[in-house]
UniProtKB/TrEMBL annotation:
GO terms for molecular function: aldehyde dehydrogenase (NAD+) activity. This is Nucleoside-diphosphate-sugar epimerase. InterPro entries: Epimerase_deHydtase, NAD(P)-bd_dom_sf, NAD(P)-dependent_oxidoreduct. Coiled coil: none annotated. It comes from Mucilaginibacter gracilis. It comes from the Bacteria. SUPFAM superfamilies: NAD(P)-binding Rossmann-fold domains. GO terms for cellular component: cytoplasm. Residues 2-218 form the NAD-dependent epimerase/dehydratase domain. PANTHER family: NAD(P)-BINDING DOMAIN-CONTAINING PROTEIN-RELATED (PTHR48079:SF6), PROTEIN YEEZ (PTHR48079).
Amino acid sequence: MVLVTGATGFLGSELAKQLAVAGYKLVCIKRATSVIPAILEPYAPHITWLNADILDVFALDEALQGITQVYHCAAWVSFNPSHKKLMIKTNVEGTANLVNLCNQYNIRLLHVSSIAAIGEAKPGELITENNHLEETPHENGYAISKYESEMEVWRGIAEGLNAVIVNPSLIIGAQAGKTGTGKIFETVHQGLKYYTTGSCGLVDVEDVAGSMIQLMNTNIESQRFIVNAENWSYKAIVTEAAQNFKVAPPQKEAKPWLLNAAWRLSALWGFLSGKQKGIDKISAQASSKTLNYSNTKLTKAIGIHFKPISLSIKQICSQLIATT
């Protein structure tokens, strides 16, 4: 039996769908308030849903009875400074609980980390799995939570845990809608005047889920893999999206000083109104960085052929147009 945490989320639901299509019987855990995604409704006969918070050791223990493989996708994602402490506590302690129980019951674990837990390479070089964070970014609560969560998995591995880790780059896909990475494309759809000078790695959610299933069913353990299809500049991403939407692409470069002003104004608005609006500091700083990732280790391990990012962007834009 296979258990998936975070199956109500963007990646977790795609993973559960692919497992169900492949004929697996699944146990998926969720919070009592979470809504089962529509894309999983056709696969109801394959999925048993249990209400279990990853911070509740006793509920997790009960859910893991009879399980041989666990995909750990659950994580709180937020760049709101007010969420920082609780997000770190939730993500790290939840992962530690799962690691301990998987070790206790000899369950194989596939842990979803992030490129946020990987360090930067020298200028002009691709970032690989061998690049480690030299210093945890104190202001980025999400990066801290993913780094420390991954450290819990490595701690478990040192204690005998059978585990493998994936570090996806920016995950995109049509089913994101207008949330998460979907916000990028919806912003272009509504009209975007500025582009930034940085770059990032991109990968379709279908490829992330597929690579996870392939890795789980190998003998590979005690390793981590960057899951990245292609590296794109932010300007190229928004220009490609604009062309698909048939709107004017952004023509003005957002200089670092403008981004700094934007996040400060956004923070002031949030303080005065109690609502988050506009760009946050972490996103503003990252958007000017050149961060390009290697996928060599993963392609050698499982021979994956990634969906072209231009096709992913086309599908995302078509979906947004259809639902507008």
